[in-house]
Design goal:
Glyas_Bleomycin-R_OHBP_Dase, 4-stranded mixed sheet, 2,3-Dihydroxybiphenyl 1,2-Dioxygenase, domain 1, single chain, alpha/beta, globular, VOC_core, Glyas_Fos-R_dOase_dom, Putative glyoxalase superfamily protein PhnB, 2 domains, 8 strands
Amino acid sequence: MKFASVRLVTQQFEALLAFYSRLSGTAATRLADGFAEVRLDGATLAISEERLVQMFNQGAATAASNRSAILEFEVADVEGALARMAGAAELVMPTTVMPWGNRSALLRDPDGSLVNVFSRPAAQAQATQAA
């Protein structure tokens, strides 16, 4: 089995697509009206208009109702990612070193989902050595 993607269901398709394209620096691939993928190394983030879910699986998913999952994006430079998102995202938690060593910041996407932008200690050491 291969974990292929996470799909976000939204009523703010263009705003969500712009948010994740900006965060990742990756252009979205539009596969249908109201459906696109942001294809990243390791996984794909699919974004779907709620109306498409309603057409095929009415009531199966409700837009902007996530209160338990956190989407996590590993980056080499947390501050650089935050600078790229300045003015485009609510900062929930400023950059913090977590007990397990990750450097992490939390944002909210346009639908209110939590987004963790983090770097691992090994990536931090490599970034420092390269500077």
